[in-house]
From TrEMBL:
Species, as recorded: Paenibacillus konkukensis
Name under which the protein is recorded: 4-hydroxy-tetrahydrodipicolinate reductase
Lineage of origin: Bacteria, Bacillati, Bacillota, Bacilli, Bacillales
GO MF entries: 4-hydroxy-tetrahydrodipicolinate reductase
The encoding gene: dapB
Domain Dihydrodipicolinate reductase C-terminal: 132-265
Keywords: Amino-acid biosynthesis, Cytoplasm, Diaminopimelate biosynthesis, Lysine biosynthesis, NAD, NADP, Oxidoreductase
Amino acid sequence: MSRIRVAVAGASGRMGREVVKMVLGDPELELVAAVSRTSDPTVDAGRFVGMDPCGIHMSNDLEMALVEGKPDVLVDFTAPHSAVLHTALALRHKVRPVMGTTGFTPEDIENLDKQCRELGIGGIIAPNFSIGAILMMKFAAQAAKYMPHLEIIEYHGDQKLDAPSGTAVKTAELISQTRQELRQGNPNEEETIEGSRGGLYNGFRIHSVRLPGVFAQQEVIFGAFGQTLKIRHDSYDRAGYMPGVNVAVKKVMDITGMVYGFEHFID
């Protein structure tokens, strides 16, 4: 059985480096391109991530990497403003995108799904590849059936560009599939400082904390008469996302269409 050929976009970033390590460490996968806009093309990708040389040099041209490397899958951890462009570029070359980058609108996802189906290939857009985070989302959606009063608080480092996080938005979407819209709190509530109650989504609030020294955490707090329930997930290392990315790279070879959310790959 031939190995799955993988290209990595954003390979010099902190998540991208972990993806390169994961691919190089899996005998079922083959690294064929490692792309970063700021990369030095003389540097071996394996050596760049602290492993033995692998014979694949860093590249700063994604399209050329797709043409020359002929990957089956593109794993992308870049930036929101690049996400849609990179996905379209992958599909143009009939490469299956595994996107860990946020920035897609529902219209983007619908259009990309149509393109994938026309090409007969699969793709996945996932705000979070952590299996623990996906379980947190599923548990929260289940709890919302019985405790519909809730708020989401997500914590990230102060250099994160988007707020709320893609994980928080996905959690809110899953909760809203099981919980009817319910406007919480006092109807006469008034913010004396704008934004102090967080963002409003389907009747509940999402709060984004941005501080140096924080990696990635999220909790969903449920309240009812005489009790509260907190469902929380904490990430401490980017390597914790890699088992999920590995599953996505392999699963995407067997599906058709663009899947939104890694929870579809978790039974």
